[in-house]
Amino acid sequence: MFAGLFIIVAGAERSLLSGEVVAAAGRLQLDRLPVLSALTAILADLVSNVPAVALLRPFIDSLHDPQAAWLTVAMAASLAGNLTVLGSIANLIVVQRAAASGVMIGLWDYCRVGVPVTLLTLLLGTLWLGN
């Protein structure tokens, strides 16, 4: 599964990251840590955290403070997986194991806790890294 994931990400990098896309990403103000944190979290929930980081890699080194940007990407990609059941393979494993023990955790049950916890931790992490 992970090998296929990296193949798809490499293909997406080569075919989707045209000069126009890179220029458009430059207009997103990724130097602003809240913007980078939000974009990373959204990407991490859409395509998973590893591909999100791989897709953001070409943009990070050109930013004003690459070290702060990498720390922000690491924080946001890690924490974003807590947003929904589908946000992380670990979440799926826990839900599956719980079901095997007779405990049913539905999408909305998980989101009732996952969404506020994720938003709060992303906010705190972004504020902490911004100082």
List keywords for this structure.
single chain, mainly alpha
Structure in a nutshell:
The protein is an all-alpha fold.
Report on the architecture of this protein.
There is one protein chain. The chain is an all-alpha fold. It has one domain. Helix content is 77%, strand content 0%. The protein has seven helices and no strands. The chain has helices spanning 2-16, 19-26, 33-47, 49-60, 66-80, 89-100, 107-130. Helix 3 runs antiparallel to helix 4. The protein is globular.
Describe the SSE topology.
Layout (H helix, E strand, L loop, with lengths): L1 H15 L2 H8 L6 H15 L1 H12 L5 H15 L8 H12 L6 H24 L1
Which structural class best describes the helix and strand composition? mainly alpha
Q: Provide the gyration radius in Å.
A: 16 Å
Order of helices and strands: HHHHHHH
Shape summary = globular
Contiguous low-pLDDT stretches (5 residues minimum) are: none
Instruction: Give a short account of the largest sheet.
Output: none
Number of helices: 7
Number of beta-strand segments: 0
Residues in helices, as a percent range:
over 70%
Residues in β-strands, percent:
under 5%
Mean pLDDT over the full residue set: 86
Q: How many domains comprise the coordinates?
A: 1
Question: What is the terminal-to-terminal distance?
Answer: 38 Å
